[in-house]
Amino acid sequence: MNFLKNAIEIKDELIQIRRDFHMHPELDFDLERTLCKVKEFLDKEGIEYVQTSKSGICATIKGNGNKTIGIRADMDALPMEEKRQCEYASKIKGKMHACGHDVHTTILLGAAKVLNSIRNELNGNVKLIFEPAEETTGGAPYMIQEGILENPNVDAIIGLHVEPNIEVGKIGIKRDVVNAASNPFNIKIIGRGGHGAYPHSTVDPVVISANIITAIQNIVSREIPPTDPAVITIGSIHGGTAQNIIPDYVEISGIIRTMTSEHREYVKKRLVEVVEGITNSMRGKCEINIQESYPCLYNDDNIVDILEDSAQEIIDKKNIIVLKKPTMGVESFAYFSMKRPSVFYYLGTKNEAKDTSYPLHNNLFDVDEDCIPVGVAIHCKTVVNFLNKV
């Protein structure tokens, strides 16, 4: 079956769907209108679904066989003001699809339509996973907890993300680790405030904080192998009210990014040890809160092989870019990759002539919509090849 031809035949329909999503962005788990549109499409195609995790959807195309593959798309937008002038610009003030989730959802709907039309020829089942809140806490762990990977059991999952650094008509694939894990943290350094002219009578939390901020960078530069990426970023520091007043406390917040589970646990442990050690040695006290956020995203070699072979049939080998380095960004698809063999790839959307080279999370971001049938076709071909693989 020529899946690219099938996808091009419904391209106009899919572009209208994408533009409708783009004009009406919604955030986090508050996706009422988006959910309605997805449900309307699935109802029209006769595809069964359940609503899960407040505003997620898991639909199932039942074929012939026990194998099951999932395809995931995220649906939420960002709290940004769109500045691009076009007929389908966001109509909702302060909200914008600046990360391409409108495209992801549209591609999954397109794949659903094509695959459902040949469901009697499928050697297994397809689960269509529409995830909320990717830009915040991630809907994936809630969906997994509610059992969307069971009944029938999902054997593998595929997903994609639009990429404005890759030319439209091309894709990028990275083996092994693809995205970093993240751990946001908050630190409160508690001292004893007083007059700036008499620092000896105080315990200065500002000075303690300065020592901590410098020292924790040594965790990355001197305790993590230089060949392995890791980052500790301090994003905010708050303390004090006036130039001549030493405050009682200082609050620090930041984020840890690591590329392996081992380094993730090590950096968290060392952050606590360093902060406590410096604070205690300088007569202060501390409160440390390290949050568990997205894990590392790993691509499974076997599923990568299937997707790469499938993509070659759609766009030719020369249009497949082998990515050498992972990204320090995070992606909630990682939760799925920790549970099932997965592949996550990047779909090119760059076209200088159409002015679609702005980066993700930019208020002028847009895509070349010619990417939509490419994504649909690669999804479909990968599904069929996976289900047919002995």
Question: Gist?
Answer:
The chain has helices at residues 3-9, 11-23, 32-45, 101-117, 140-145, 205-223, 261-281, 301-315, 333-337, 371-388; strands at residues 48-52, 56-61, 68-74, 125-131, 156-167, 171-173, 176-179, 181-190, 194-195, 230-238, 245-246, 249-258, 285-290, 297-299, 320-322, 342-350.
Outline the structure in words.
It holds the Pfam family Peptidase_M20. This protein is an alpha/beta fold and 390 residues long. The chain folds into two domains: 3-179 and 296-388, Zn peptidases (Aminopeptidase); 181-290, Alpha-Beta Plaits, CATH 3.30.70.360. Helix content is 35%, strand content 25%. The protein is built from ten helices and 16 strands. It has an eight-stranded mixed sheet with strand order 1-2-4-3-5-16-6-15. A four-stranded antiparallel sheet has the order 10-12-8-13, covered by helices on one side. The chain has a two-stranded antiparallel sheet with strand order 7-14. α8 crosses α10 (371-388). It is elongated and about 80 Å long. The two termini are 19 Å apart.
